[in-house]
């Protein structure tokens, strides 16, 4: 009999974290590694947010808080949902967790039973299917490939729904593709969901403020108010405010679901870090003007990376609507051999050879459920991105 849990055997370690760690180890060994694997802004946390955290420490706000958030932060989250998304939530309908991942984890673990199905469009964030499996559910992976702009169609969603479907996981702009759904594209999906009242929606909006070229962000409960009573709208401060390490995510949803998530969180972390909560309050209530400047910087990086990757032999790189990722197709590289002698049979081979031969770390597409691709995070300096693209272009040119 195994000492370890059967539930743990259903999940795998995060590939993105593993690749990032491998890149760190190579760099520590003296290699000139450029890592484009982590989904983390390279900008610093704004000074006014840091100042709020320091003030919280000095004021002694270092004790336990309510399990799912201090009242002040919940009020600010309610105001944010009203101001930016046209959604009305009360503090009792808001949950604050130690990062968006914990909020997602709480929602799924609190609701899934064996046999429950969760629709997950692919490519997907690597944690979605594994958290579903950990909760005893079954991820139903529905491909949304390059031919549809990496966006799920209404027809594909309809075909995936069964009597066992409990959740539909939705992410726009997307990790790993940066694909964003327009209002009309999302309306097509919400029309399907309105025909299936047993299906709940978990909308991961973490990249809301990273949208380009006039793309207008919308969230499901905003497009179709009839879904609000069975939608959990998830967000956080990690990406837009460059606060990944502060670990604050939040969500608004029906009060019974929020209460269940609170119950679970009270038996895990007890509460999110008190200092981080006061910092998040400053982020949500403070000056928001810098968000547009940072989005503009990411857009410029996107344009450069897309152009450079499209110049690489065997690579096709679509232009994403948001986030800070691109997801190039490398069908033209499969079946070739690298200059270092590695046969490229899969996208994982491509990424392994790229790291070993040119010291560039990216994430292979199979980790996100759709191959042959790789993900580049362009949340890095212009100099680093230019050097990385030089190396990728050289690597592709050496394939025979």
UniProtKB/TrEMBL annotation:
Enzymatic reactions: L-aspartate + 2-oxoglutarate = oxaloacetate + L-glutamate
Top-tier EC class: transferase
Family per record: Belongs to the class-I pyridoxal-phosphate-dependent aminotransferase family.
GO molecular function, one term: pyridoxal phosphate binding
Protein name according to UniProt: Aminotransferase
Organism: Citreimonas salinaria
Keyword Transferase among record annotations: yes
Gene Ontology BP annotations: amino acid metabolic process
């Amino acid at each position: 009999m195994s000492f370890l849990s059967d539930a743990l055997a259903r999940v795998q370690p995060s590939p993105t974290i593993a690749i990032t760690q491998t890149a760190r180890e190579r760099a520590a060994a003296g290699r000139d590694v450029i890592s484009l694997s982590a989904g983390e802004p390279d900008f610093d946390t704004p000074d006014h947010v840091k100042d709020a955290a320091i003030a919280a420490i000095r004021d002694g706000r270092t004790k336990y808080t309510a399990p799912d958030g201090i009242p002040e932060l919940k009020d600010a989250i309610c105001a944010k949902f009203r101001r930016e998304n046209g959604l009305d939530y009360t503090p009792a309908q808001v949950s604050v967790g130690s990062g968006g991942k914990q909020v997602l984890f709480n929602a799924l673990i609190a609701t899934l039973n064996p046999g429950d199905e969760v629709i997950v469009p692919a490519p997907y964030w690597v944690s979605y299917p594994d958290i579903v499996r950990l909760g005893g559910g079954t991820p139903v992976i529905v491909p949304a490939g390059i031919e549809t702009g990496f966006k799920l169609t209404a027809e594909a969603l309809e075909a995936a729904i069964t009597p066992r479907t409990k959740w539909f996981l939705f992410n726009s702009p997307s990790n790993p593709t940066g694909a964003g759904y327009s209002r009309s594209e999302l309306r097509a999906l919400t029309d399907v969901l309105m025909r299936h009242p047993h299906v709940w929606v978990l909308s991961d909006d973490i990249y809301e403020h990273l949208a380009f070229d006039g793309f207008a962000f919308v969230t499901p409960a905003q497009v179709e108010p009839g879904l609000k009573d069975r939608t959990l709208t998830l967000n956080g401060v990690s990406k837009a405010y460059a606060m990944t390490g502060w670990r604050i995510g939040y969500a608004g949803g029906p009060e019974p679901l929020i209460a269940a998530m609170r119950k679970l969180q009270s038996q895990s972390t007890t509460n999110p870090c008190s200092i981080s909560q006061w910092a998040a309050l400053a982020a949500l209530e403070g000056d928001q003007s810098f968000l547009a400047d940072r989005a503009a910087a990411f857009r410029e990086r996107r344009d450069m990376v897309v152009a450079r990757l499209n110049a690489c032999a065997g690579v096709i790189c679509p232009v994403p609507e948001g986030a800070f990722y691109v997801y190039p197709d490398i069908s033209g590289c499969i079946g070739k051999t690298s200059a270092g002698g590695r046969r490229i049979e899969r996208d994982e081979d491509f990424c392994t050879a790229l790291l070993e031969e040119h010291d560039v770390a990216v994430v292979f597409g199979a980790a996100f459920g759709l191959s042959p691709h790789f993900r580049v995070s362009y949340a890095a300096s212009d100099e680093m991105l230019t050097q990385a693209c030089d190396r990728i272009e050289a690597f592709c040119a050496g394939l025979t």
